[in-house]
Amino acid sequence: MLVRQIKHWLMPLTILALLLAAAVLTARAEEPAKDQAKPAAASPAPAPELPAGHPPIGGGAAGPAGTGDGAALPPGHPPMPGGQAELPPGHPSMPNANPDMPAGHPPMAGPAKLKDEPFLANLAIKVSHGTAGGKLPQNMVAKIKFVAGDKVIKETEAQIDSHGVSILADVQLPGPAQPYVTVQHGDLKFLAVGKAMGSTAADQMLRLTIYDAAAEAPQWSVTMRHVMVRRDARGLFVTEVLVLNCPGDRVWVGQPLDQIVKDAAAARKTAADSRGTATLVLPLPVGATEARAVTGLNPDATIIDSGRLISTDPLMPGTAKIQIAYLVPIRKGIAVLDITAPAAVKATMVMVPDDGTVVHAMGLEQGETAQGGKTPIRLYHAADQAAQSKISLTISGLESAARASAGQGAGQAAAGTVPVQPEKRSSAKLIAGLGAGALVTAAVAVMLIKAPVKKVESKK
To answer: Do 396 and 333 meet the contact criterion of CB atoms below 8 Å apart?
Structure first.
């Protein structure tokens, strides 16, 4: 009888002991590698943050944090232009985000941090004309500013020759700086911003393209529109990322501002860089407040008027990426997000946290659910939205969802679990701390404890 019991328990105990011993060896083997990786992780430049609530998008090794398990783009969604380097700040990496890499190649590390020390900068400027048949003006002068943070540390000028070239050699700079180059063509100013320069990156070629002005408004469109929603103490905080496409090879300076706003003089006072014309008119949801341009638009050339965000900057040909943000009010636990197309929109994606709220969509189809941090994200899609047409989301249950979230935290506190913060150690590390002898003891205890429980239950 005793022999049969020993044989009965011997194999499970042996297997469990081997598994736990393997976990110990794995944990110990990983420790040196992690310690060696710490200094290297601090050197690359930090990646830009995602817009709040944006889930990872796309698969493959180039995905966020190498997960490769993000949600794919919806069917018919246009490809993202230009790869990871040209994505709007904070936007997740897309599949094959490094287009020059072989498929499946891991993303390369960012540039090393520039040393804070004086250096001699060499900047070559190449100006070209982007309008068919256009000619570079004679005696063109480039104005150059070297900027560190929010301070201009050096200003200079350079003559552009007949080939559109100017070279600045041995420019003494006290530390790392970014070049801003401006040239004027007619009554338009064109700006190009270079990469950061420093003692280990002292040479740079900066290209700048000028265009003739368009006589008529171009048929610009929106290739992609991503709308990210998250609950805020004051309402729903919404971030939009739009990729614009402006055809042709001329720059559009816009239509007179007094044709768009009721009080053009008052509107111009709110936009220091306003030219008195308007190019982009982006309708905002009803009741939206605190609207602002985040990236891609000049905040000093932006006007908020009659529920619209208006840009007075000239509209350049080609592709442009802009990001705006605003607040949508919540009334009696309900928020309505109206999304009006400023022009024809090829693909729209709206992202709403799956936090217990109820969403009613008009003009949008619900897609898959993606993981966006701690809270899953519901994705809604629309394709080929006509200019000035409207789609909308009505989100209800916002108050009850907020109470449920607060109640969960309160319940944990009442149970005495919130103040106790467990150590952030993996189970492998915890097991490794027990030692080999404790492993076998724990294995035996687990196996022997299970049998009496079953016997007691069977007797009942």
So the answer is: yes
Pairwise CA distance, residues 145 & 11, whole Å: 75
Our CA dihedral for 305, 214, 341, 73, rounded to 10 degrees, sits at -130
Consecutive 10-residue averages of pLDDT for the chain (460 residues): 53 51 44 35 36 48 35 50 42 40 52 88 97 93 94 96 95 96 92 94 96 94 96 90 96 89 69 75 95 89 90 92 95 94 97 92 92 86 96 88 50 37 29 32 32 32
Strand 203-210, strand 119-129: pairing: parallel
Residue 309 in tokens: 């965000």
Give the chain's end-to-end CA distance (angstroms, integer): 25
Token pair of 348 as six digits? 């729209």
Helices 436-459 and 2-41, packing angle to 10 deg: 130
Q: What type of residue is 265?
A: A
Residues in the chain, total: 460
Q: How many CB atoms lie within 10 A of CB 340?
A: 19
Q: Name the one residue in this structure whose structure tokens are 């492998």.
A: 428
The Cα angle at residue 320 between residues 318 and 322, in degrees rounded to 5: 165
Tell me how far apart the alpha carbons of residues 48 and 51 are, in angstroms, rounded to a whole number: 9
Asked whether 63 and 94 are in contact (CB, 8 A), the reply is: no
CB 287 within 8 A of CB 326: no
Q: What angle do CA 61, 65, 69 make, to 5 degrees?
A: 60
Tokens found for residue 455: 């016997």
- Nearest residue to 122 via CA among 101, 151, 146: 146
The DSSP code for 213 is: B
Residue that has been written with the tokens 């952030």 in this structure: 424
Q: What is the pLDDT of residue 450?
A: 35
The 3-state DSSP class for residue 421 equals coil
CA distance 245 to 403: 43
